Amino acid sequence: MSNDFVWQTKLAARLHDPAEKALVLLRDPAGHENGTSRTLKRLLGFEQLAADIDLDNDEAVVKVLFNNGLPLDMYRHVQRADWWAAAADRPQFPMQAITVTTQAGEQKTLAVADWAQVRWAKHPVLIHPLTGAQFDLSRHGGLTDTELADIKQRSFDHFSRLVAALGAREETSADWRKLLLAFWRFGPELTEEADNGKLGALWGLLPADTRIPDHSIWDHLDLTSAFAGAFAADPQGEVALLTLSIGPVQSFIAAARKMDDLWAGSHLLSRLSWEAMRPLCERLGPDAILFPRLRGIPQVDLWLRDAMGLPNDLFANSDWMQGGTDANPLFSAALSNRFVAVVPASQARAIAERCAQATREWLASLGREVVARLLQAAGCDVNATTTPYEQMEAQLAGFPEVHWAAVPFSLVKPRNTEKQTDLDTAGLTGAMAPFFGVEDGQPCGFLATPAWQVLQKSIDWNDGTTFFAPNPGVLYPAVYDLAERVLAAAKAVRPFAQNKQEGWRDSMSGEAEWLTTDRQHLAMPPGQRQDTLWSRVAKAKPSWAKEGEHLGALSAIKRLWPTIFAEEVGQALAAGEKGEKKDIGRFVVSTHTMALAHQLDQWLERGGHTVDGMGDRIQKAEAVALPRKLVRKHAANPALADAKRIPGLLEAAARGTNNDAHDYEQAQRLVKTALGRTLDQASARLETYYALIMMDGDKMGAILSGDDKTTIPFCESFHPHVRKGFEARAASQPLIRQYGAQKRPISPNRHLAISGALNDFSQTVVRHVVEEEHLGRVIYAGGDDVLAMLPVADLLSCMQRLRYAYSGIDPEHEGGVWQGLTLQNGFAALKKGQQQRVMRMMGENATASCGAIIAHHQAPLSAVMRALREAEKRAKSEGGRDAFSITVLKRSGGALFLTAKWGEPVELLKKLVAFLRGQDTSRRAVYHTLEWLRDLPEPKDNPEMLQSLLAYQLARQSGNDPRAMDLAKRLTALARAQHKDGRQWLENFLTVAEFLARETRSGGQA
């Protein structure tokens, strides 16, 4: 098929249902398909396409064209795609046989039973697809019963503005593709002009089916477009599910010596993922990728504008167009290292191989640019010096690893080819058998589940209702499961070529030889490398290499990526504003600055006064990057400029920049005195510790595959009004009751919902929690993975808030008024000024574990990160997942550890820290308690004794603080609840609390 036809078919599929379907269903006499959808088809010329076809006086064809406004072959692709998408995403639903009178006489047809009809505008309820939780919008203002004509007009105005924004059309493939891309990207974002403040955030959540409001109309249109495009692009109209992954992940990210390295590793991996997806998106559109969801990803937006030609004005309100600093969302690692897509079956191999090739070509090009920049910085001939180019090419050979698998839906054969029903699953069963370890012909996987046993049979409802017969879309779970198993098998076979490495190894990873202009230099041990490529680079570009560092290919790419990408962003923003390239420095807040952030915040709140002898020194110091919240909060404070230089003053003095042995002591004394005034003290002890947190979703692979914990029964996905009618009939009909109780199989909607939730969590909510609510900085946030840096005073509060945000449930907000970030029933509502956005999170049954580390700002980052990863592993292993584990690395040596479940332990830790900070509480309260705690029996053996002695000791050391008794009771209960060694756990709890309560962290949030 021609490209024109593919893009036209995809666009027609996006228009088969109107966006406002949920608001006009059962209200529009013309029917939802003959409203905005029909008008837009006419506007875009689809009816003319149909009229230009030679009909040969075929009355059946004339009828199809008249009713749908599409050429017959295009209509059939769209119709089939709609059937498959609905079957893949929604539970089978009872239909009622009715008789209608037409000019040809009486005919029987199927319609939705009266008890299953929902006027959603009056009863706007959303269902969380992973929990079944109901989000009743009527409790938050609801929906006014807007005039039908007004709703349709606003929808039409919205899409017609998109058409107008694309300018004059010449009916080319590029134009059809632009229309499809514009409708995909901006359809869910209702402009203020079209909305007039009436629908707002709800527009992006309008359900596809009012009876089953657990997925949006946009999810359905995306899936229908994906199927339709693949049908149209395949000569036989066959489609396949393609899964592809790149790696390695952990080892690539983990190799780091600076915070910038950590960011670069994560961001580069995300960018490589996009480069793998790009060829598929160019051929079939981004809606062909079901996981991850690409809509709204800044890097994809940039591609839409610069490569696909969408007008810059369409992106004017996007966050990435606003930020001229490294806080720009383009700097976020937004994409996972794998994707799942619907592709034409005959093109699956070619597409997968092109994706792999494009990824490696992009990285090879980047590698050549990195070498050229290094040579230029070192004063070498960029073109004549060949050795580092050869090393770069050799070390990048075969990187990244790309694995893929494709499973065709043609393994399922519809016996009824006209309606795509009455399924023969023998081919699919045979293909699955080797991967499930069963004999050929024996049902396995999804085909052996109770859900399929129910779906493939008809159920007698005894009231004139029936099911639609299942089509191949219903078997998406089986096809997906098979694709995942084939991919796992492909990963198990990892052929690789030997790559000879000589001499000393890379300073960052320790794996490859370092880049050099002279291979004889590779034999030089550290201390003798006086005139190497890297020694020259270190002098010319200190941000690219510290003194003594010598890096290999991948490490060099990571080290220069912040510079290269910042330039890329600057060029992108300049292109949007049609101006000169913007200079965007890539800064990650330094560990020293982060340690001081809380004290700087207090200092600024009290006026930011300096002391004698400090002013001149501050003006000469280098400004550093501060946490975003600190900058925004004190933007109007003239002392903010001084706050940016105080860490720089201390760091320069520590490096001995002024060649004065007493310089650092003098600088410290000045800063201590200034900050001490904030605390009404003669001098403050400067905070030297900072915190890092690493959070990861639990069992994400199982959730994607449909684990029991996050899979709900069919009946729980029904609108409450429908569920009431369903349960009334199920009460007396066992088969119906059995069907309603079956767990829903995985579906494209499930994957889209998970991907959308993870995108919103990582790209919006994480940044809000870390950088708006706290004084932290996100190092990377992609999907369910988060790495962030914080002042110690914000650690506990931020950890717990992120955990709540991941699930979309915060006990303090339940039933409250939306303000800032509100988390309820698995949804997050973010309100900034007059703008409000509602996002689906992962739900109460999805959990996350977190490792946290508190370290001195001068501690080697490699050791800190190693301890942080170990803490995260402890949270998942010792904590049993849905837990956190804190490690305190003491500057003096040794470490403290605490692992516990979320909830009560965090809240109690906050309260204990606040108690220990009390004015009347002895600094040695914990030490005195620990002296006798070691002699007590295990808490399980004698909890009464432990509680009594704890209460006595805490009261005695705090001047009889009334909080002592409650703390003792709660501490005893937690210690007693530990599976083993509760006494040691309590000791850890107390020592970590004591560390957090020290006076340098006073006044902050626990």
From TrEMBL:
<dbReference type="InterPro" id="IPR043128">
    <property type="entry name" value="Rev_trsase/Diguanyl_cyclase"/>
</dbReference>
<dbReference type="InterPro" id="IPR000160">
    <property type="entry name" value="GGDEF_dom"/>
</dbReference>
<keyword id="KW-0051">Antiviral defense</keyword>
<dbReference type="InterPro" id="IPR013407">
    <property type="entry name" value="CRISPR-assoc_prot_Cmr2"/>
</dbReference>
<dbReference type="InterPro" id="IPR038242">
    <property type="entry name" value="Cmr2_N"/>
</dbReference>
<dbReference type="InterPro" id="IPR054767">
    <property type="entry name" value="Cas10-Cmr2_palm2"/>
</dbReference>
<keyword id="KW-0547">Nucleotide-binding</keyword>
<dbReference type="GO" id="GO:0000166">
    <property type="term" value="F:nucleotide binding"/>
</dbReference>
<dbReference type="GO" id="GO:0051607">
    <property type="term" value="P:defense response to virus"/>
</dbReference>
<protein>
    <submittedName>
        <fullName>CRISPR-associated Cmr2 family protein</fullName>
    </submittedName>
</protein>
<feature type="domain" description="GGDEF">
    <location>
        <begin position="688"/>
        <end position="889"/>
    </location>
</feature>
<dbReference type="InterPro" id="IPR024615">
    <property type="entry name" value="CRISPR-assoc_Cmr2_N"/>
</dbReference>
<dbReference type="Pfam" id="PF22335">
    <property type="entry name" value="Cas10-Cmr2_palm2"/>
</dbReference>
<dbReference type="Pfam" id="PF12469">
    <property type="entry name" value="Cmr2_N"/>
</dbReference>
